[in-house]
Amino acid sequence: MAAQPYVLVLFYSRHNKTAKMAEQIARGVETVSGIVAMLRTVPAISATTEAVAPAVPDEGAVYCSKDDLRHCSGLVMGSPTRFGNMAAPLKYFLDGTSDLWVSGALVDKPAGVFTATGSLHGGQESTLLTMAVPLLHHGMVITGLPYTHSALSETQTGGTPYGASHWSGGQGEHDLSKDEITLCRAQGERVARLALKLQLPS
Fold first, then answer.
1. CA dist., res. 36 & res. 158, Å (int)
2. Tens-place pLDDT, residues 15-67
3. Three-state SS at 42
4. What's the distance, Cα to Cα, between the start and end of the chain in Å?
């Protein structure tokens, strides 16, 4: 019997805001029958060559392996914004996936992206767009959030058609807003539905 298909919710979170978004996206995935969510993170990286993180985190999601990525039916990937781009730990992980690119392991699988920023106009959209670029190179089918979700037009915090986003505030003082939660869950649900429709026969 084949293993149950899953959407990989892969993220890096420095101050727990992106992690909270990932949890809401996973809830959205889990509303779709026949598929589950797999939450995974990546370790922080250091300017030195010494390992600085334990093999298994003390709390939260476990670290992602390339096999977790290889065997997913869909992917939703998130990062805090770093100068309008994804954080280095997530980029470092993706830079190590050339073998998956060569084999075409991710071709035709749906993918979405999400982010959190300290300031309202702190590069959310550029981060989401640039995060999508390596996934396009992998041949993934990029999905966003359609404007049929009224929260996109009503939000006064985060939320974009390119993917879910969150305005955390300069000191991380903002919790996820109602609209941000709605859009996170909608993104998870959409990728899950598309993953089942696009799933290749085994």
1. 26
2. 899 999 999 999 999 999 999 999 999 998 876 655 666 777 888 899 999 99
3. coil
4. 11
The distance from CA 172 to its chain's CA centroid, rounded to whole angstroms, is 20
Residue 129: which CATH number? 3.40.50.360
| Of residues 58, 84, 71, 29, the one with CA closest to residue 21 | 29
Whole-angstrom Cα distance, residue 15 to residue 174? Answer: 12
Using DSSP bridges, classify how beta strands 85-86 and 74-82 pair: parallel, antiparallel or unpaired.
antiparallel
Gyration radius of the chain over CA positions = 16
Q: Mean of the pLDDT values across residues 94-117?
A: 97
Residue 102 to residue 104: CA distance in whole angstroms:
6
In a domain, 116, yes or no: yes
Domain count, the chain: 1
- CA 191 remoteness from chain centre: 11
- Pick the closest to residue 93 from 53, 120, 145, 147 (CA basis): 53
Sign for the pseudo-dihedral over CA of 149, 26, 189, 129:
positive
Q: How many CA atoms lie within 13 A of 42 on its CB side?
A: 26
1 located within any domain = no
